[in-house]
Protein: Sigma-54-dependent Fis family transcriptional regulator
Amino acid sequence: MQQARRHLLEQGVVLPSALDDRLARSWQRSWNAGLAPDSRGEGQGPVTGPSFARLLQRNAQLLAFARPVMDFIYRQVRGHHSMLVLADAHSTLMHTVGDDGFLDQAQRVALRCGESWHERERGTNAIGTAVAERTALQVRAGEHYLAQNGFLHCSAAPVFTAQGEVAGVIDISGDAFASQPHALVLANSAARMVENSWLKSRYPEHVRIHLHPQAEGLDTPAEGIVVLTTEGVLVGGNPEGMRMLGLSTGDCFSLRLEDRLQHRLAKLLAQAGKLPQALYLPDGERLHMRVHRPEPRVLRPAPRARPNQPASAPSRPATGASPVAAPEGPDALARCDTGDSLWQRAARQARRLLHTPVPLLILGESGVGKEVFARACHDSGPRAGQPFVAINCAAIPESLIEAELFGYAPGAYTGAQRSGSPGRIREADGGTLFLDEIGHMPVLLQTRLLRVLQERQVTPLGGGPPAGVDFALMSATHAALDEAVADGRFRRDLYYRINGFALRLPALRERSDFDALALRILRGFMGPGEADEAQGPADAPGAGKACEGAGALPVAPDLLAALRRYDWPGNVRQLSSVLQTACALREPHEAFIGWQHLADDVREALRRHEPGLAGAGVEGVGYDTAAAATTHPVAKERAAAGAWQPGPDTGSLKQLSHQVLQRTLQTVNGNVSEAARRLGISRQTVYRRLRSAS
Ligand SMILES: Nc1ncnc2c1ncn2[C@@H]1O[C@H](COP(=O)(O)OP(=O)(O)OP(=O)(O)O)[C@@H](O)[C@H]1O
Structure:
């Protein structure tokens, strides 16, 4: 380990094979975050007082289910110079129980309630690394990134929510005792016990299926559990249950279990509460299951989703709804709903038509999310689980569209696959065919498509018997199809055939849900929890406060304001790509996206929309540094502590940024790396900035 440490200090990279892969990744993250292995870490001090009380309040359920399990485990390990820890999803310690002697020792390295053991602050450690890697693991002695934690041996296992998000971590820390494999087994079993008891009590109005390969395994911590709505839509499950049935978290709220298992829900319910039953999976494997019916409740109206509830957040289980009128979890359309009323209107219209054969024509500018919307309609309708086949008519060369759509017989044309092809239309059989940019379909093919739509039969190119097809049709275009009809570029009869109902999706600049939509997109790029994590415990010192005004978005407030004002000609696609680039340019230790994470052309385009900045130079270095200095958490923290703050009369942005840089360099005694880290910019930017000022 000493050699690995030396190598890291000298080369800045982890020595290959020195550590288990997960720990090696973690060491590298810790190094990249700017943590010095011989430092005392970057803790911002413990969360205390009312803030700590609120933290406990937010995690009340997890605590309630974890405490008895921790007490039980502690009784098994008492006297072994160790402790059990429960941390939240951000690695902040909430509850500990352990031997007095060891608790005292642990206090000395801040292993105590209220302290964060996030990797960013403490480097590789079992709690923070189990959260980052989403897996149970051990970190023993010198494997800890900070040398001062080398006396600890820790085993930690994440506790997952029913939708696969990390809810918290259970850790066993101690001296040599905790380094043994059984400590990891204990931590893992504790996490499974917490998940299972939480899951059982959390969904009283849902159907619960308990599973195990052996009947005797039911009701043990090893059992799998999945939860369904009374209509059979998957709500979630424990990791074991999801694994046994080959489900992924992406299936939650969209998959009907009977489509996957070929078991009727009614039949499953009929077996509820009886002795364990055999359940055969599609591959022939046999499991034992016990089905629990929802508990009867008084009828109450279905709760509605809050309009600005972040769309990709797992919806909470319905509370207070009856098993008969119970609403299922939000479907795919509801999960795309980030609160804009124009978009919601389109979704309402589409939803009414999903159970009818009426073809939808989705209109809207390029990049507004027409295909995303069509896919969500499909996933929310009766054909969910069947194929969704999207064809971009503008992207396929005209000469190939016919073969691509209708398929071809073996050897139908030069360059064709020898075995022939069924064509995309037949691939959509049973599901949905989505024709994007339908306005670009060549007129001759429009005639063939019309015939398929009328006859519901496809005849492959080069001959062969026609094959019957059954699909729902959705089309989309950003072009004015009625104009194309008027000047003869699009067949009128086909236009009427595809336009059973036309709905229009709003351009991004017309939407009122910018923040919620951006958060949804960021979640996709930052990974589960991280987009919200920047908010931290809302009142934790430092990070959360630095983003005041930005709501839940980990974006510097002035940048967020500019993003909101921008007119987004490329719509959601453009926003998505800007956020993706910014996430990629963000250094691992940077909690917020700032101006410095934008490409030059984007920064320039945004600034053209900024009333007060129109005259500033385009080069932008000064601007991004100033922005970083005023919005980066560390800088803001310093400002709050009484250090220099830019005032309105301090000069141009370029001067401001130079002053910030100079003062930061003074504070850190000229250490460029440290200054760059504090300002949230790269060392190269610091040097460039110094050069441009001289
Ligand atoms: N609701 C959404 N949540 C997250 N990302 C979205 C959403 N809607 C659209 N996007 C992003 O925007 C991109 C473009 O969406 P989509 O392809 O559906 O737009 P479109 O209107 O069909 O575009 P075009 O007219 O160019 O075919 C997607 O790849 C995705 O990255």
